Every structure is written in C-alpha cells, then in structure tokens.
Amino acid sequence: MKNDVIKLIPMGGQAEMGKSMYCFEINDKIFIIDSGFRFPDSDKLGVDIIIPSFTYLEERADQVAAIIITHGHDDAMAALPYLLQTIHAPVYAPKLTALLIKQMVERFQRHNRVKINLDLHPVNRNASIDIEGVPVEFFPVTHSIPGSVGVALWTSYGYLVYSGEFIIDFGAPKEFQCDIQKMMEIGKKGVLALLVESSGAKHDGYTSPNHKLTNKIDHIFEDSYERIIISSYAQNVFRTQEIIELTKKYKRQIVFYGRDKYDNTNTLLRIAQRSKKPVLNVPEHLLGDKEKIGNPQYDSNYVILLSGSPQRIYHDICDIIDGGDDLLKLRKGDTFIVASPVLPGTEKIANKAHNGLYKTDAHVHLLKNKDLFSMHASKEDIKVIIQIFKPQYYIPMKGEYQHFIFNQQIAQDMDIPNDHIIIIDNGERITFEKGKLLDTRDVFEIDDVMIDGIGIGDVGEKVIDDRIQLANDGVVIVGLTISRETKEIVAQTDCQTRGFVYLKDSEYVIKHVIEICEKVVGQLKENPEMEIAEIRSMMKDQSMKYIVKETGKKPVFIGVVVEI
C-alpha cells in the first residue's frame, strides 16, 4: 500500500471572514483550493482589499499541481489574478465559475495592464477527474450562487474533503441543488479529514428556509401599487432569482439597476444572453427599460433591483437619497425594500442609508440580519454533512475563532473525539503520516497583503497610521525659503493647515509654530555644515511638542526648506 504523506496549510480564511485559501499537499504535489480576498476593517483607510501573501507558494512553485475554485464569490476566487502572476498552474472550476473567472481575469489585465497566463479547465459540478495522478471528485452543493461545489482529494488513507460553502435545501432550483448521492459515495470510500465552513455554526436548526426572501416580501409586492425598489447583494444570485419570480408572479417588469457594470448580476445576465440554459432566465417581456425610470406612466409597474457589492451598495443608496443619481429619484408612493443585511465593516454607512430612507416619502421595509440568513451552514446542516462523510478527523474552516468553537461543539455532539477535531490558524501546517495526525505543527508567516488601487503590498502599517492621523488630526505644512549662500530666510514663511484647527480661533498657534521653525532654520547661519534633513527633523520635533501641549492634537507635520 502506498504511504502518502499529507499536509494541510491554510493561507487565508481562518479566524477571519473571507480571503479563503487552503493548500493540500499530497507527497510532493500541492493543490490550492480557493483563492479569495476579504474587505479591510474600517481602520484600514484607503485599502481596497486584502489578500494572503504567496511567499510560501513561491518557494514551492514547481510543486503546485492545480488551483481549484469552488464558486464564483470574491472570497473564493477574486485573489486568483494576483496568485497567477506568481504561480503558473492549471485552474479547475465548475463551468459557470469558470466563465466568471475568465471575465474577471480579462478585466484585471485591462485595468492593471498586465499579462496573465490563464490555463482554465471548466468541469462539470459532479465531475471525477485525475490531476497528476491524484483522483479528484467534485460534488454539487447549494449556495447563494449557482454552480457551487465541494471537492474531495483521494489519498491512500481516504479522502480529504473540502465542503465548500453550503446549506441543505432539497427544494432549491436545479442550478442550486446539491448531490447527496455523490457525497454518500465519497463517504463510503472513507474520509480521512473533513473541512467544514463555520460562519453559521452558532445558528440553531437548518439555515433553510430562513435564507429565503420570498415569504418575507411577497405581501409587500401584493400591497404595493407603485414601483418597488429593492437592494440586494449582487453575489447572492439565489435571492436575485427569487425577486425575478416575484416580479413574474405580480405581472410587473424588472429593471436590473446594478450601478457597477462588473457586478455579478450584470455579468450573469450577459452570460445568460449567450446561453441555451441561462442561470438567470428573464423573458423579454419581463424586462423593463432603464431609460424610462422616473416616468410614472411607464415605471409605476417596475421592480428596480439595485444590486452591488457589500462595500458599494449602501453608498449607492445614500447617493440616490441625496439626489445624486441621474435616473433614479425617490418619490412619494415608492416602496423601498432593503434586502441587503448589514455585513461587518459596513455598519456606519448602512446606518446612514437606513436613516436617510426613513426621511423620504417612500414606504421602507428593512430586513435585518436575524430576519434573513446568509446561505451558510447552520448546526443541523453541518450535522448532515458530518453524518454523510463520517470523517476520521474534522477541521472547522472559514470563520472567526468563535465560530470554530461552535463548529467544534457540533462535531463533539456527533461523537467525533476531541483530539480528532483540529483548529488551525493561517500559516499553521499539520501533517498526517500513515493516516495519523502528527502532534507537531510547522508555522509559517502568512502576512496580509493590502491592495490599494493598483498597488500590491505598497501600503504598510506606517502608511495606514499616517492616514488615520490625517483623518483624526489633519496636517500642518510649514515652508521656508533660504539663501543657498548666506543661509538667511529670504521670503515670508508660509504655514498651511488642513483638518487641524479653526484658524480664526487659533492664529496664535500657527504664529508660534512659524516662530519655532524660523528659530530652528536660523541655526544654519551659525552651523552651515548642518544637513537640511536634520533641520527638517528638528522643525518637526519642536513644533509637534508645542502643538500637542497646546491643542492636544497630533497632526501630520511636514517641514519644507527650499534653498535658492
């Protein structure tokens, strides 16, 4: 019997929401499953997204056999263009996800002016394939975007099963359905380790039917006689499909008002137009005309679906409330349904949007997080998966640390021994030899890489600290002009401030800062050998001592000395 040595190291997704990336090592072959980003916390000012560092993989680039993407969400696939600039390996994904990957990579190349070698292999959702001698099984799961899968890698000691993101919902539409039969076949052959998502593990019961929007807004559609505006996250295609069906039921027309042309709803609609079996099937007569929005004669029967990303959708709502949208203006009689529950990091802008909506003449219906579950596994969903696969070892994944503890408790309730439940952090590598988990763990540093515009990793903690300082206390800039020969000040010293203090009340502060800086520069006459850099440093140190003592603020201070 072949004795496979098996290792697992998460690059992202552990003790955080998003940035999923897990590396399975079977002997000398590395299989990367998912490669996503996460949105930054509110204190990471100006940072767009965060991805894992790829140093670990760069050092083992020749061992990477494949990259497997389980579904078309940003937290699972959107770091792929960055990874492919470092690692050249074939990418396997379900057919719909593969189309989304292709469009994402093309857009990334245009925007960043780079060339990416994409070796893309679309697979069926229940495919059985061989990658460099390792049998790989895909199995369909139910998630908020169609075409989602879990993955099982065969080893000499049983399968390594990656659940993907899932719920148990046997009434799901065909494109969203899971395949319990395929999962059971995998389970019967033996599962060494099962990795199961954790973010919904604290919820009792099944997620279904709490994830369904229809029964929560059907009566709103029935009671509305003017147009309906509904906000929903673009990546939740399941919810989009429900809104389409309600539009059809109440003989209305739908307008897809995704303000970002690259959001998932718009992309999937474009794919549907070229597909014989479209994911979002919207008959021509059901589509409203975006250009007729605002004309009561036409749009009073419209359902306007305002879709977007979690980071943008509430900004879009605020813009519409403030009258900043050229087409969509709220008017009396409108019904506005907020079906985009608040996600971490968006609380402030979401609260502003909610308050703004209630100040309008629209009928506002706000669906809170407790009313509308995201499509992630709750306790009973997880129990079903454990029952199907019956793993030797169990690994909670994808979620905050508290979610791992809830997931661990579920596994214990399912009679998995506590020493066979493995909680690991990003960068911790566990090893199985002869089908048993070794006690020792290797630890590798997997840093967060912050993406700011097209800059990759250019933004460090010092830059973030400066941005926070600027946001909190503003900036003070003092400019002096001196003679290159005599070192005397030859022009009036200028002091500019932004976001610091109200000048009319604090002119004395500015005057004293100027005096301090002129006194420091005056030392050049006596010590012409002093470096200008040293003078600027002294200007900053002495000015900041005074500013902090006088105002209690710590602005960013910039001293400029020009020699002429």
Protein described:
The strands form 5 sheets. Strands 1, 2, 3, 5, 6, 7, 19, 20 and 21 form a 9-stranded mixed sheet that branches. This protein has a 6-stranded mixed sheet with strand order 8-9-10-11-12-18. A 5-stranded parallel sheet has the order 14-15-13-16-17, sandwiched between helices. It is of the alpha/beta class. The protein is 31% helix and 24% strand. 42% of the residues are buried. The termini are far apart. Helix 10 (313-321) runs parallel beside helix 11 and helix 15 runs antiparallel to helix 16 (532-551). The mean pLDDT is 87. It is built from 16 helices and 26 strands. This is Ribonuclease J. Pfam families: Lactamase_B_2, RMMBL, RNase_J_b_CASP, RNase_J_C.
Task: Lay out the secondary structure.
Elements lengths: L5 E7 L8 E6 L2 E5 L15 E4 L2 H4 L5 E5 L5 H4 L2 H5 L6 E4 H18 L7 E4 L4 E4 L2 E7 L8 E7 L2 E5 L17 H10 L1 E7 L16 H10 L4 E6 L3 H13 L3 E4 L7 H10 L22 H4 L2 E7 L4 H9 L13 E4 L8 H12 L4 E4 L12 H11 L3 E5 L3 H13 L14 E6 L2 E2 L4 E2 L4 E5 L2 E2 L4 H13 L1 E8 L11 E5 L8 H20 L5 H20 L4 E8 L1
Parallel strand pairs: 3-5, 5-6, 6-7, 11-12, 12-18, 13-15, 13-16, 14-15, 16-17, 24-26
Antiparallel strand pairs: 1-2, 1-19, 2-3, 4-22, 8-9, 9-10, 10-11, 19-20, 19-21, 22-23, 24-25
In short:
The protein has 564 residues and is of the alpha/beta class. Helix 10 (313-321) packs parallel to helix 11 and helix 15 runs antiparallel to helix 16 (532-551).
